[in-house]
Amino acid sequence: MSIVECKDVKKAYRQDHLFVQALGGITVTVARGAFVAIAGPSGSGKTTLLNLIGGLDTADSGRITVDEKTVTSMRQSELAVLRLYKIGFVFQSYNLIPVLSALENVEYVMLLQGVPQRERRERACSILDEVGLKEMYHRRPAELSGGQQQRVAVARAIVSNPSIVLADEPTANLDSKTGKELLQLMEKMNEEREITFIFSTHDQMVMDYARRLIILRDGLVTDDRSRDP
Prior knowledge:
single chain, alpha/beta, Rossmann fold, four-stranded antiparallel beta sheet, about 35% helix
């Protein structure tokens, strides 16, 4: 069963008085529980596609469905609810709130969801333990390494059990050892929690871990292949 369906999705941006075609008509589906990497050179459209799937940007034409909700026909208020309850995000730059501790950053999504304080704290502590940050609850982002910050970001993305996690270049700022540990962590979450992961990446290691690899070039799918588990 598909969790993401994109049909003839197009997106162009205005750049120096010109329109640049970021996506030229993407049609692709992603099965529930998948572990997928979208790869390609800079400017190929992979981050644009991820942002459209996550409702962070709007397609010019075509249709995108996420968890049986048609993203391309939603109002901004509806998209905000979809992102809050159904989609987790992991960004290259971590996007943690600098004045909050690791624990508070992980709790933040649940706070927006209205989860009671005691339950928020228990769930946040449990997921931080699970990602190997048991001793780091009260450290702020500036007091954590890049790898530790990205683990907090992963914990924040999955603590509310979203249907899907969108990870934009999650290993780009990490050394290879830390990147590998992060990928193993996300693979474990995918298998144990059945959360769908979609990555955009330049990193060959991410491509090797993915069970399906979609290659974009000039805003079009040029290759789409799966590997045996």
